[in-house]
Amino acid sequence: NLRRLEGEPIRDAALAVSGSLSSSMYGFPSTVGRQPDGEVVIQKGPNRFRRSVYIQIRRLHPQSMLEAFDQPTVSINCTKRSTSTVATQALTLLHSDDMIQAAEDFSRRLLRETSDPSQKSVRDIVDEAVALAFSRKPSDDEAELMSDFVIQQAKRYQDSLTEAQRAENPAEQPAKAFQRGLADLCHMIISSNEFVYLD
Hints:
The chain has about 200 residues and is mainly α. Helices cover about 50% and strands about 5% of the residues.
């Protein structure tokens, strides 16, 4: 039966496809959360990308993304974890600082692991993204749709630059715009039902 992953495996899977997941084991020191703007996110530092099992849980500051995906509260006994499907989960995947960062890292990984991105087609990069996230090849329709999306987003970012930004490192601007467009695609992929649900 179709089953949604719990919050911890969703976070771990996003870190894994981004190439950021730390393989360090054992619980000390634990990963600590911080609350910059209402959302409790993982504090920057050497332990930031450790698996979710090592996150320090505090009653007053539960990690926002995990809480949205039914992380049990520690103030009461929890004999069985509930599973809900609510709109706030989709919004969390779209707006969570941790997921946005994972998408950025995912796009950088795709470009880093491509020996010469200029010699590789957008379709090749899209194929790699889908293979890493879903363990399958995209259909022709999916690949075309995703490739067009990356190209259109890159053009939007390029067109939105101010004159001052265009004058600053003009040779690097197209590559930066492409990376931002690819990051948007990566964000869509790790926020998709296929990434979050097991079928």
